[in-house]
Every structure is written in C-alpha cells, then in structure tokens.
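Troubleshooting: if your tokenizer reports a length mismatch, compare against these two reference records.
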Amino acid sequence: MTHGNAPDTPRSTLVVTAHAGDFVWRAGGAIALAAARGEKVTIACLTYGERGESAKAWRAGKSLEEIKAIRRGEAEAAAAALGAEVVFFDAGDYPLTVTPELTDRLVGVYREAQPDVVLTHPLDDPYNGDHPAAARMALDARVLAQAIGYPAEGEIIGAPPVFFFEPHQPEMCGFKPQVLLDISEVWETKRKAMECLAAQQHLWDYYTDLAVRRGVQLKRNAGPNLGLAHKTMAEAYMRPYPQVTGELA
C-alpha cells in the first residue's frame, strides 16, 4: 500500500478522467478487474463532456442542463456496472481549464482515496485539449498530495504508479503500448458499461474492435503456450514514471 494503512485494507485505484465516457472506453477493463478483486475504485470525472462529446443530444434540441443530467446519469450507470464510485467535478468542458482550484480539489480526492494505482490520460492530444489538461492536473495533484506541508485535509499519500490509458487517436498522441492488460474475463462487464453511454453509441463498436486488436498483440507478446483464450481482449497503457521492482520480470 502507498499509504501505510492496515494490511487488510483493500487496495485502491484512482481514475482521473476528463469526460463522462472516457473512463469506460479507455480503462473500463482495468476498473472492472480491480473491482472484481475487491479493490476500491474511485473515478474523478472532471466534466460531463456536455459541450464537446454530446452532439447527439444537442441535435435533439436538449438544453445544456438537460445534457449534463443525461451524461451524469450515463456515467453513474457505467460506473455502477464496473463496480466503481464516481465523483463529479462539473468543471466544464471544451475547454477544460487547468486551475489551482481544480488541482486542489483533486488533491483532496487523492488523500481521501489513498490510491495504490492512478489511471489517467496521456499528456498529448492534438484533437482534444481537455484530455492533457486532465492529465496535467492529475499528475500535479499527485505530487502535491505527497507534500506534508500542502494545506489539504487528509493523510499524505505515497507515490502510486501512474498508467496513461490509450487515447482515441494513439498515433497522433505519441502513444506506444508499454503495458497490455488482459481484460478477457471482464470484457462483458466493460461492454455492458459501454452500452450505458447511449450519447456516444457510435463508439461502442470502435472500442470493441480496439480491444480485439490489443488482445492479438497481448497474445503475440505473451507467447503461444500460456493458455490464453482464443479471443483475448485487452487494453493498452503507458507509464510516465519508472517501474520500481526488486526483480526483472
């Protein structure tokens, strides 16, 4: 544990996501796996994606507040399907602006969640500035939450490893898979969570196909004799900080 609680304290995962759907498409498998192991998963959802990622609702003539309510409801249902808790910041998207106030709120979430693992966006995305903004605040808040002199409630945290989940346009974001996570056993759970996001139904098949492709890569890198399922599903991640280990494996 990064926070020195009792040995029987469940592990904790913190996911910092720019929009209501991001945590499902990009990290739903990791979230479902952690929850299935009995770990606590907290999702810090900075915006509802109401302006930039809700075109279907805008075309249907919905108001801003109606769209926020729709996207919040979808995110709550998806998080429940995955076994996670979600905290909404309602910071406003397109643009999501990095501010000391938002970063400070995130510090509070870090100290309350005491995460062993942090998942968030990569720092580069030329198509959507909200994603790197969320990542920047996630990394900054992680450092501040470690500082004993930082004026925020709660116990300081350790240095939980950070994993960047895969962006929608990986080639354009400098994303190269460094970690391939087998999510085959929870794939149906992730798909169920994806189907909670009716506002972005056009992405259901895209992220299903991506999981298949990453599964093929996982099998190729794992070797042919590990008993993997014929149709292995996977998610890809990068690491911004070095892995700390006592054994190369």
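Reference record two:
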Amino acid sequence: MPTYTVEVNGETFDIDAPDDDAVRAAVRQLQGQKPAAPAPQPTAAEQPDPRDNVLGKVDTVMRGAADTLTLGLSDELTAQIRSNPLAVQKKPEGYFDKGIYAGDYNPLGMIARAMDAPFASDTKAADYEKALAEERATDKSDAENRFGYRLGGQLVGGVTGGIGLAKNGLSLAANAAERGAGLARVSGASLADGGILGMLQGFGSGEGGLYNRLENAAVSGTIGAALGGVAPGAVAGASKALKTAVAPFVAPFMPSSYARDAIATAVRRSGQTPEEITNSMRAAADDGQDMFNVADALGYTGERQMSTAVRVPHDGRQALAEALLTRQAGQGERLANYLAEGFDTFDTAGRRIADRTAQRTAEANELYPAARANAGPVNVTPILEEIDQTLRPGVNQLANPRDRIANDSIEGALSRVRAMMSDGNSQVTDFDTLFRTKLDLDDMIQRAEGQGAGNRAHYLTRVKDLVDQALADASDQYTGARDAFARASRRIDAVDAGRDASRISRRAQDTIPEFEAMPPGEQVDFRAGYVDPLIARLEGASSSPTTNKARMLQTPKYEAELPAFAAPERGGQLADRIAREQTMFRTANAGLGNSKTADNLADAADLNQFDPQVIGRLVRGDPIGALTTGLAKLLGTATGQPPSVVHRLSQVLMETNPDVALEVLRGGADKLSQSDQLRARLVSALVSSGAAGAGRLAAP
C-alpha cells in the first residue's frame, strides 16, 4: 500500500492509503480533530484523606488510647520501633545475647532494642526523626479531622489506665478510699495522684527539648492536681445525689438493703470492725449482760442511729421503745447484783456484824471458861499503880483534904475502876472478878468513844491493857482466848471501817491503803461494810428510765475504790459491767430522753398525710401550684428513710445474738467495701483521664 505525505494545520502526517479518495477522507478526519485539553489535577486540599474510613477511625481510637496509656510517649515509642525494625537491625554478633537484650520473646529486651535505635548510628537517628515527624503529623491530622474518635480513645485509655492503677494498688486515692478514709484524706491522696500523673503526662507529651518537657510537666502537674483534688468530691456528690433521688422509689421495696447500708456506714463511723463489735457483745454475754445489743456496741454512732429509729414512726417503733424502757427499768437491780457478786457479799452490813458478834460470843463462851478454870491468883498491883499516877492528887486529898475540887470525868472513870479492884486495904486476887472488871472496862471504853470522849477512852484503854496482862499472867489459856476475841472484834470493826470508807467524804487515797493493810479475813468483812450502803442507794434510787443509776458508781472515788476493794479477780469484771450499764443508759436516753419536740414533729408528719396548702390551691383553681407544693413536701420528706427501712434498721440495732449480728454486719461491710472499690476505681479513672487531658493542654 502506497504512503502519502500530507500537511494539515501546519503539521505533516504520513498516511498509508490505497487510493486518493482514502487519502482525502483521512485528511478530512485530521482536519476535524482538536487537541484535548489536559485533565485538571486535584489540589492538595482536595486530596482524599486515606484515614477517613472505618479502619482509619479505628486506628485513631487506638492511637488516642495508646497516647494516654503511655503517658504521652506513644509517638516516640512508635517512631523507635519503625526506625529500627528488629529483624534487620545490624549489630555485632552476640550483641543481643546478653543482659536485658537476651531472649527472642523477652518484652523488656524488645523495648530496649527498640529504644537503642536512635543512638546506633547517624542513619538510624535520621530514620527516627523522620518516623517521629510522620507519627506526630498523623496525630495532628487525627486531632483536626477525627477529633471525637481520638478524644474517645484518650478517654478509654485514661479510664483503663486509672482502673489498672487502682486494681494493682498503685493509686493513692484508691487505696485511701478502699481503706474507708474520709473525703478529706481521699481528696488529698487524689490531689497527689493527679499531680504525679499530670507531671508524667506533661513530660511525655512535650515535643521540644528537656526544658520544654519540664515546663509542660509543671503546668500539667498543677492542672492534674487541681482536677484530682475535686474528683473525689464530685464522685461523692454525684453518688449521694443519685442515691437520694432513687431512695424514695426503691427503698420501700428493698428495706433490708438500705438498712444494711445504713448500719454498715455506722460501723465504719464507729471506727470498729464487725468482729470487734460482736466480740464486745460476746464479752457482755459472758458477764451476764446478754441484753447488750448492736447499738450499744457501736457507741456514739449507735446512739444516734437509735435516736432516729425511736423517733421516726414505723411498725416496730412501740416495741423498740418498750424494750428500751424495760431494760432501763432493771438497771438498779442489775447493778446491785453486780456489786454483790463483785464483792462476794450477799448479806447486809448489819447482818454481817450480828453474825460475827454471835460467832465471837460462842467462841468466847468456849475459851474463857477453860481459861478461868485453870487460872491462878491475879496481881492487880501494877494496875493500881498506873491508876494512882493519875489519881495521886485525889488520893492525897483523901488522906489530907486541902480543898473541895471535884474529880473530872477521867478521874471519875479511873476511880470507879480502881474501886472495882481495891478498897484501899485489900486487892482483888480472884481471876473471875478481875475478868468481869475487864468486861466492864470494855463497855466503858465503848461508851466513851460513842460520846466522843476520846481522852477518857485513851486512859481507860491503858488500864484495860494492864488488866489483860494481869489475866494472861494468871492463866496460860487466857492469852489464846483473848487473842481469839480480839481477832473476832477486829473483824466486826472492819465492817464498820468499810461502811465508813464508802462515805463520799472519805478519799480513795486514804481508804485504799487502809484496806490493803488489813489481813485477808478483815478485808472480807470490810467489803461487806463498804458495799452495803452502795447497794442500798441503788435500791432506793428512782426507778424512772431517765435515771442513770450507773452514774453514781462512776465518780473518781468509786472508779478507784471499786476495783481495789472487790473480791480477788472480780474488779475488772465489775468495772466492765458498770461501764456497759452506762453505755446502755446512753443508748436508751438517746432514743427516749431529751426534748420531745422531735417526737411530736415526727408524729405530726406521720398523721398529716394531706397538706392544707395543696387543698387550698386546688380550690382556688391553681393545679400547678398544688402540684409544686405537693412535690416540695415529697422532696422534704424524701431526705429521711422510709418507715420500712427504719423498722429493719431498728431490728438490727436491737440484735443481741453475736452470731446473727456478725452475719448482718459483715454483709453490710462487704457491700460497702465493694461500693468503696467501685468508687475508688471511678475516682482513679477520672484522675487519670484528667491528668492525660492536662498533659495535652500543657503541650505546645
């Protein structure tokens, strides 16, 4: 086929055609063609985002989570790994076979090998800087174009990290909350958590040199501390608000749960564990005080709970009040029994003296006749000489009267005694006669002491001692009889000494040494004399439930004397029993005593089911006002617990069985502990998330 060369529009073309007609057709075709305009190229701004798809968004979330979980170091760590693939890294032979590098699947070794890359050579450092720039560019693009996804990932990372810290015991705030610390301590610990995490996040989020990172750490730490300080209060407030909001609707149907929460809170506020509370109840039961209940063992917290339980109207209110009244009415009788048992004394002081006197008489009637039967003559000359030393002026007056001065009471008493032993010419030598004189002397001494004539009793006692000596010299058996009579007399005197020691005017600093100086036998009778007036006071006190009979035994005097005077190994138990009676009175008084205004208001609220203001507004055609007034009243009463919860709470407070109480208290404590753990992890999650946000706010 021939080739034709033609020129069209200034351009030369070679056309293969069979004839001229075909050439002309080709020329016409070339003349009709126009050059196609170049296709417009998209601008950079119009380029489609390769990450704007499902996988890119998922990756954005994951990168955001990694950012907070690594304390802002995810870009650096990723750049390290990208710039230094472990499979192609060139190192001297055996470089990774020792130290922390050893092991193909050693996580620490992998991280160490990755971190070693920027410093291996200049080429690797450049690769690291390039990879780091790309990572930060991607993060910046995500923050600008997929902000919600990145923020969501950061929140997930913060929450996950915070929960992980709390779960592993690395959160100060969580540890404090799980220990049941107060809001102030938890807030302080949370402030420290926020400050520490904020500084770490700020340092890791910096993109400049060391100074820039330190500056970011300071700013972020301050913001994190502020957020951490308010987080516990915010969580506690929200929890309280939520619980208060749902309580009026849920509590009536779940009274046991709400009562358990209330008692668990009381246990925590008391500063005791459930085991310590029930151990107190067991100790009380062992001491015969099985009426000691949970409210008593809780202490002041139990008193306040009992006050609410008695004053709020509920189905068990009357039974609760009657139980407290009955228990308190028996306080005096119980205390009297405790004193009798503690002093091992079950008779009165008068009965004890009568018994001891009868025993002394019976013993004397047995011993003295034997002493008289074997007695020889008595020598009263030493006795008369002792008397004459005092009566000599009177004797001289008899021989040579100089005046008419009368004898004083001492001289008169001594003259009477002398006359019983001598008439001036002869002396008594008969044992029985001198023994009767001795008995008469005993009566004279006793009367003198009763009349307050101490000096007369003193002179007569000196004479009586000489009479005893004369009788003992005349009869060997008289000494034993005399000593036995003296011992019996001292035991009778010990009863009076104990009774005297119980008086308020006597001080423990004097009575305790006096008691300790007595032999054991006299101490037994001292106890009878001491405790008898106290029991009489208890039995004579008012039986009103508002009268605290234990208080009279808790003065400084009796708190010192009762354990000291009690029977051996009984003092501690007696003190514990009295202290428990004081506690039980305080519990009853918190519910039954004080002003009745609170009771009256509670009763009025219980009876007044219809508010006149609501009816008035409805009559006036104001349904909106009636509705708001009714809601206001509902919200006002919703702040308290419903009657069903208070009823259940009162049953727990009055529980006296330690085993049942322990089960209930442990259940409440476990639930409260779980709530604490949940709240602690929530606080830790908020603090961690807030600290992560603070780090990003501080970053350039």
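Descriptive notes for reference record two:
- Residues 210-250 form the longest helix (41 residues).
- The chain has a mean pLDDT of 76.
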